[in-house]
Write a structure and sequence with these properties.
mainly beta; Neuraminidase; 2 domains; four-stranded mixed beta sheet; 32 strands; 2% helix; globular
Amino acid sequence: MGTYKGIQGYMVESLASDPGTLSEVIGKVWYNSGSNVWKVAKEASGAWSSGGNLNTARNALSGFGDSNTAAISVGGHLGTPGDAYTGATESYDGTTWTTVTSTSPTRGEATACGSQTAGLFFAGVNQPGRKKQTQSWNGTGWTELADQSDDHGGGAGFGTQTAAIIASGVAAVAAQVDAETWDGSTWTETGNVNNARAYFTGTGIQTAGILMGGVKSGPALSNAAETYDGSTWTEVTVINTARRDSTRAGLQNTAMMVAGNVTPSATAIVEQYNGTGWTEIADVSTPMKILGGDGTASSAFKSGGGNPSVSNVSEEWNDPVYAAVTVTTS
């Protein structure tokens, strides 16, 4: 029978503590002399973990950012009907949310996209009316830009600060099918979506994005998903659990639909798209609806929301997750 040294080419190392970067030692065995146990580095599938709390608890907020260590949460509603909307903006570094320059006008149920230092915040509602405003974020402050042509409160969008799209949402009293693209200075009408709906979500870039879920023109929840190629919307495989008021992360073929409202309850369900179909992956820790979030399929965040009261909780998604596992003889 071969020895570990004979198989691996080196002796088992004795360390006072576990290695700092486990991703670099996957499969390596060591002896932890501090805890007197044998350990091995293991790679596991994605999981959600607790993040820092927002300074302002709210629902109906928006989020944007490239990862769970470089994120923005903006806007939202402070509570039950009759409470005020907020323009509060907070920046996240992976540990702490820091209050930065607020946006104006205050609103919720808006759309946002971009990076922590180059974002876009657009549409939304603030009773008694819907908002068409567009504002850009440069990492320190907001700048007012051109309005959209149509009302898109409760709509969904995706893209970057200079190349975005917004689709559907509520105009007057019913969900609509209109969509508009943004070139950094002007909104232009583009092809209509296939499914009129509101309070849904979307992710991707302007020429390769996806919309999912929402509520139809009436009380029925939608499980529809459709992709956009820069000119045309195409219906694709439906999500497994129809719901509204979710958040998102990823790109078109790695899209994640996170939590949401299955009416009347919030859900913790998370689904991921692979370009063909949807698969349920790890749930968030706490069911939540009308929440914010963004990021990539490997590094995402979700923040705030309601269940049923407003929340300041955030969670972080990492995929894969690395762990130092104790070696046992059983």
